[in-house]
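Record type: ASSEMBLY
Status: queued
Input:
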Amino acid sequence: KAGVTQTPRYLIKTRGQQVTLSCSPISGHRSVSWYQQTPGQGLQFLFEYFSETQRNKGNFPGRFSGRQFSNSRSEMNVSTLELGDSALYLCASSFVPGRAYEQYFGPGTRLTVT
Amino acid sequence: DQQVKQNSPSLSVQEGRISILNCDYTNSMFDYFLWYKKYPAEGPTFLISISSIKDKNEDGRFTVFLNKSAKHLSLHIVPSQPGDSAVYFCAASGGAGGTSYGKLTFGQGTILTVHP
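Status: finished
Output:
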Protein backbone atom coordinates (compact mmCIF):
# COMPACT_ATOMS: atom_id res chain seq x y z
CA LYS A 1 0.00 0.00 0.00
CA ALA A 2 1.42 3.39 -0.98
CA GLY A 3 2.57 5.65 1.82
CA VAL A 4 1.87 9.30 2.45
CA THR A 5 2.96 11.38 -0.52
CA GLN A 6 3.85 15.04 -0.45
CA THR A 7 4.39 17.39 -3.36
CA PRO A 8 6.53 19.13 -4.20
CA ARG A 9 9.51 17.65 -2.37
CA TYR A 10 11.58 20.82 -2.65
CA LEU A 11 10.56 24.41 -3.11
CA ILE A 12 12.34 27.74 -3.19
CA LYS A 13 10.32 30.91 -2.68
CA THR A 14 11.04 34.57 -2.12
CA ARG A 15 10.10 36.47 1.00
CA GLY A 16 6.61 37.93 0.68
CA GLN A 17 5.35 35.26 -1.69
CA GLN A 18 2.83 32.59 -0.79
CA VAL A 19 3.14 28.83 -1.13
CA THR A 20 0.82 25.82 -1.25
CA LEU A 21 1.96 22.35 -0.25
CA SER A 22 0.03 19.18 -0.98
CA CYS A 23 -0.40 15.92 0.90
CA SER A 24 -2.07 12.69 -0.16
CA PRO A 25 -2.75 10.36 2.78
CA ILE A 26 -2.48 6.60 2.79
CA SER A 27 -5.49 5.04 1.08
CA GLY A 28 -8.29 4.71 3.60
CA HIS A 29 -6.82 7.23 6.01
CA ARG A 30 -9.17 10.09 6.64
CA SER A 31 -7.22 12.25 9.07
CA VAL A 32 -4.30 14.43 8.05
CA SER A 33 -1.95 16.43 10.26
CA TRP A 34 0.80 18.86 9.40
CA TYR A 35 4.05 19.52 11.24
CA GLN A 36 6.90 21.97 10.74
CA GLN A 37 10.48 20.95 11.42
CA THR A 38 13.17 23.60 11.89
CA PRO A 39 16.64 23.31 13.45
CA GLY A 40 15.75 25.79 16.18
CA GLN A 41 12.22 24.69 17.13
CA GLY A 42 12.26 21.03 16.24
CA LEU A 43 9.04 19.37 15.12
CA GLN A 44 5.97 21.45 15.83
CA PHE A 45 2.33 20.64 15.24
CA LEU A 46 0.52 22.90 12.78
CA PHE A 47 -2.99 21.48 12.38
CA GLU A 48 -5.12 18.36 12.07
CA TYR A 49 -7.96 17.80 9.59
CA PHE A 50 -10.73 15.25 9.40
CA SER A 51 -13.78 15.25 7.17
CA GLU A 52 -12.72 18.56 5.67
CA THR A 53 -12.79 20.19 9.12
CA GLN A 54 -9.91 21.47 11.20
CA ARG A 55 -9.98 19.61 14.52
CA ASN A 56 -6.86 20.91 16.14
CA LYS A 57 -4.48 23.79 15.64
CA GLY A 58 -0.99 24.55 16.89
CA ASN A 59 0.50 27.90 17.87
CA PHE A 60 1.22 29.36 14.47
CA PRO A 61 0.20 32.74 13.04
CA GLY A 62 -2.78 33.09 10.75
CA ARG A 63 -0.46 33.15 7.72
CA PHE A 64 -0.49 29.37 8.03
CA SER A 65 -3.70 27.79 6.85
CA GLY A 66 -4.86 24.47 5.54
CA ARG A 67 -7.75 22.60 4.14
CA GLN A 68 -8.86 19.08 3.40
CA PHE A 69 -10.78 17.86 0.42
CA SER A 70 -13.53 15.25 0.22
CA ASN A 71 -11.00 12.65 -0.93
CA SER A 72 -8.98 13.32 2.26
CA ARG A 73 -6.14 15.00 0.39
CA SER A 74 -4.92 18.08 2.17
CA GLU A 75 -3.15 21.30 1.31
CA MET A 76 -1.46 23.83 3.52
CA ASN A 77 -0.84 27.41 2.54
CA VAL A 78 1.62 29.93 3.89
CA SER A 79 1.06 33.53 2.86
CA THR A 80 3.50 36.41 3.02
CA LEU A 81 6.49 34.14 3.46
CA GLU A 82 9.19 35.07 5.94
CA LEU A 83 12.77 33.81 6.09
CA GLY A 84 11.88 31.93 9.28
CA ASP A 85 9.33 29.84 7.40
CA SER A 86 12.18 27.90 5.81
CA ALA A 87 11.63 24.41 7.11
CA LEU A 88 10.73 20.84 6.37
CA TYR A 89 6.95 20.53 6.31
CA LEU A 90 5.72 17.07 7.19
CA CYS A 91 2.31 15.60 6.61
CA ALA A 92 1.03 12.61 8.56
CA SER A 93 -2.11 10.56 8.09
CA SER A 94 -4.09 8.23 10.28
CA PHE A 95 -7.20 6.15 9.81
CA VAL A 96 -9.25 8.14 12.28
CA PRO A 97 -8.61 11.45 14.01
CA GLY A 98 -7.40 11.85 17.52
CA ARG A 99 -4.91 9.02 17.20
CA ALA A 100 -1.61 10.75 16.69
CA TYR A 101 0.06 7.58 17.91
CA GLU A 102 -1.14 5.83 14.77
CA GLN A 103 0.12 8.44 12.34
CA TYR A 104 2.30 7.66 9.36
CA PHE A 105 4.52 10.44 8.10
CA GLY A 106 5.33 11.45 4.55
CA PRO A 107 8.85 12.40 3.39
CA GLY A 108 8.15 16.12 3.73
CA THR A 109 8.45 19.21 1.57
CA ARG A 110 11.64 21.19 2.04
CA LEU A 111 10.74 24.89 1.73
CA THR A 112 13.50 27.46 1.41
CA VAL A 113 12.59 31.14 1.63
CA THR A 114 15.18 33.58 0.26
CA ASP B 1 7.58 26.36 26.59
CA GLN B 2 9.26 23.08 25.69
CA GLN B 3 6.94 20.45 27.11
CA VAL B 4 9.03 17.55 25.81
CA LYS B 5 12.80 17.75 26.11
CA GLN B 6 15.66 15.65 24.87
CA ASN B 7 18.66 17.16 26.59
CA SER B 8 21.32 15.22 24.70
CA PRO B 9 21.70 16.53 21.14
CA SER B 10 23.90 13.60 20.21
CA LEU B 11 25.03 10.18 21.36
CA SER B 12 27.87 8.04 20.07
CA VAL B 13 27.94 4.29 20.74
CA GLN B 14 30.02 1.32 19.65
CA GLU B 15 28.33 -1.41 17.64
CA GLY B 16 26.99 -4.17 19.88
CA ARG B 17 26.73 -1.96 22.94
CA ILE B 18 23.59 -0.46 24.45
CA SER B 19 22.23 2.91 23.33
CA ILE B 20 20.15 4.81 25.86
CA LEU B 21 18.22 7.84 24.70
CA ASN B 22 16.47 9.99 27.27
CA CYS B 23 13.42 12.23 27.24
CA ASP B 24 11.75 14.38 29.88
CA TYR B 25 8.30 15.95 29.82
CA THR B 26 6.60 18.58 31.91
CA ASN B 27 2.92 18.18 31.09
CA SER B 28 1.49 15.63 33.51
CA MET B 29 -1.57 15.28 31.30
CA PHE B 30 0.42 13.46 28.62
CA ASP B 31 -0.48 9.80 28.74
CA TYR B 32 0.91 8.27 25.58
CA PHE B 33 4.52 8.41 24.51
CA LEU B 34 6.23 7.42 21.30
CA TRP B 35 9.70 7.17 19.82
CA TYR B 36 10.38 7.93 16.19
CA LYS B 37 13.46 7.41 14.08
CA LYS B 38 14.27 9.82 11.29
CA TYR B 39 16.74 9.68 8.43
CA PRO B 40 17.64 12.80 6.43
CA ALA B 41 15.14 13.64 3.68
CA GLU B 42 12.59 11.20 5.09
CA GLY B 43 9.67 11.56 7.44
CA PRO B 44 9.81 10.16 10.98
CA THR B 45 9.18 6.44 11.26
CA PHE B 46 7.38 5.07 14.28
CA LEU B 47 9.54 2.81 16.46
CA ILE B 48 7.80 2.00 19.71
CA SER B 49 5.25 3.49 22.08
CA ILE B 50 4.11 3.22 25.66
CA SER B 51 0.93 4.09 27.46
CA SER B 52 1.07 5.75 30.85
CA ILE B 53 -0.51 2.69 32.46
CA LYS B 54 2.69 0.76 31.75
CA ASP B 55 6.26 1.30 32.81
CA LYS B 56 7.94 -0.81 30.15
CA ASN B 57 7.32 -1.90 26.59
CA GLU B 58 9.59 -4.10 24.54
CA ASP B 59 9.82 -4.79 20.83
CA GLY B 60 12.80 -6.76 19.66
CA ARG B 61 15.97 -4.76 20.27
CA PHE B 62 13.98 -1.73 21.41
CA THR B 63 12.65 -1.17 24.93
CA VAL B 64 10.97 1.96 26.23
CA PHE B 65 10.84 2.69 29.95
CA LEU B 66 8.46 5.19 31.51
CA ASN B 67 8.89 6.74 34.96
CA LYS B 68 5.76 8.77 35.51
CA SER B 69 6.77 10.18 38.87
CA ALA B 70 9.95 11.58 37.33
CA LYS B 71 8.19 12.47 34.07
CA HIS B 72 10.98 10.66 32.26
CA LEU B 73 11.16 8.08 29.53
CA SER B 74 14.05 6.35 27.88
CA LEU B 75 14.65 4.22 24.82
CA HIS B 76 17.12 1.36 25.06
CA ILE B 77 18.54 -0.22 21.92
CA VAL B 78 20.35 -3.50 22.50
CA PRO B 79 22.53 -4.41 20.70
CA SER B 80 23.14 -1.23 18.73
CA GLN B 81 23.83 -1.59 15.01
CA PRO B 82 25.33 0.88 12.52
CA GLY B 83 21.95 0.97 10.73
CA ASP B 84 20.46 2.47 13.88
CA SER B 85 22.36 5.69 13.21
CA ALA B 86 19.65 8.34 12.78
CA VAL B 87 17.88 11.11 14.64
CA TYR B 88 15.57 9.83 17.38
CA PHE B 89 12.59 11.86 18.52
CA CYS B 90 10.43 11.24 21.51
CA ALA B 91 6.86 12.51 21.34
CA ALA B 92 3.91 12.75 23.66
CA SER B 93 0.19 12.75 23.13
CA GLY B 94 -2.84 13.45 25.26
CA GLY B 95 -3.73 16.12 27.74
CA ALA B 96 -6.83 18.12 28.38
CA GLY B 97 -9.61 17.53 25.89
CA GLY B 98 -10.31 14.77 23.40
CA THR B 99 -8.78 16.55 20.43
CA SER B 100 -5.43 16.64 22.20
CA TYR B 101 -4.84 13.04 21.13
CA GLY B 102 -4.63 14.20 17.56
CA LYS B 103 -1.53 16.23 18.27
CA LEU B 104 2.00 15.05 18.95
CA THR B 105 4.42 17.18 20.94
CA PHE B 106 7.98 16.34 19.98
CA GLY B 107 11.32 16.67 21.67
CA GLN B 108 14.24 18.29 19.84
CA GLY B 109 15.74 14.97 18.81
CA THR B 110 18.97 13.12 19.56
CA ILE B 111 21.43 12.19 16.84
CA LEU B 112 22.57 8.63 17.43
CA THR B 113 25.75 7.44 15.77
CA VAL B 114 26.68 3.78 16.05
CA HIS B 115 30.28 3.08 15.11
CA PRO B 116 31.27 -0.29 13.59
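Annotation: The first strand of chain A starts at residue 5 and ends at 7.
Annotation: The mean pLDDT of chain A is 93.
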